[in-house]
Each structure stands twice: as structure tokens, then as C-alpha cells.
Amino acid sequence: MGRRPTKAVNNPFCQARLRAAEYNEKFFSKEYAAEQLHISAGQLQDYELGITKCIPPDSILRMADVYRAPELRNLYCREMCPLGGDMPVLELEDLDRITVRAMVSLRKVAQTKESLLDITADGIITEDEKPELRKILATLDEISAIAQSLKVWTEKNLE
Questions:
Q1: CA–CA separation, 118 vs 42, rounded Å?
Q2: Which residues have CB under 8 Å from 61's CB, separation 6+?
Q3: Main-chain dihedrals φ then ψ at residue 52, nearest 5 degrees
Q4: Residue 138 CA neighbour count, 13 Å, CB half
Q5: Which residue, of 16, 34, 53, 72, has the fewest CB within 10 Å?
Q6: Shortest CA distance to 54 belongs to which of 34, 35, 79?
Q7: What is the pLDDT of residue 16?
Q8: Which H or E element spans position 100?
């Protein structure tokens, strides 16, 4: 089998491969992983060392699938795709933590709904309503991030 990486150990693609090796030790080998990803071992090494900055999206999708690491899709969209810079950072947490965060955020929904109705009732958003509208958007972003975290947890754990 392959050696433990030293230079690439902090790279998220290398970390995902090593986590995959916990359920299939063959993933300790870059050659095996590259074969599963339909790329060369040199390409995989370049991804893991950060030499290749523009990894093709289809490679990211295969890594997410093969390594059982759906969080790589979020990483790609958030950090590599020029359109996804405002995507939330997904927290890889246990289900109980995600559930608690969801319940806390969902408590805010009723209040958020009422505020949104008040702001938009007349069809005009005034300057004094804009700060409250920004709070509403922040709450919706929070709920969206929690939903994404739950989705990632489910994809990783319900195979």
C-alpha cells in the first residue's frame, strides 16, 4: 500500500482520500484512488499538493462520490468556482448538533415570517426597513446552511 502523505496531509482532497481509506484501505494508495477516479496518479498528486488550482468539476464530483465525501462539492463551489464565493461553509458535525442548530433556527421562522410580511405588505421597501430585511436574509442563509449540513451528513451516513 501507499505511504502516508506528508506534504499534502492538510489538503482537503488528500484528507477525503484518507478518510475513504478508513472503510477501504486501498485508498491509501494514490494509484488505486486515481484509477477509481479515472485520472492519472500524477493528476491526483497535483490535486492533493495544490499544484493544480483549477480542478475540473467532473473530477470533484467523482471524488465526492468515490470517497463518500459530499462536502467536496461545497468546497469546490465555495472556494474554486468563481460564481460560488458566497456559499456557506458547511460544518461537518454530528447529527445531534445539526438538529439542535436546526431547532434554534427554526424558532426564528415565525418571527421572520411576520417581519417579512410587514416589510413587503405595501410593495415598497423603505430605508428604515432595509436593516430588518438584512436580518431576515441572514436568518434564511443560516437555515440554508443547516439544511446543506444535514444533506451532507445524510449522504455520508445513509449509504
A1: 58
A2: 73
A3: -85, 115
A4: 6
A5: 53
A6: 79
A7: 93
A8: helix 95-120
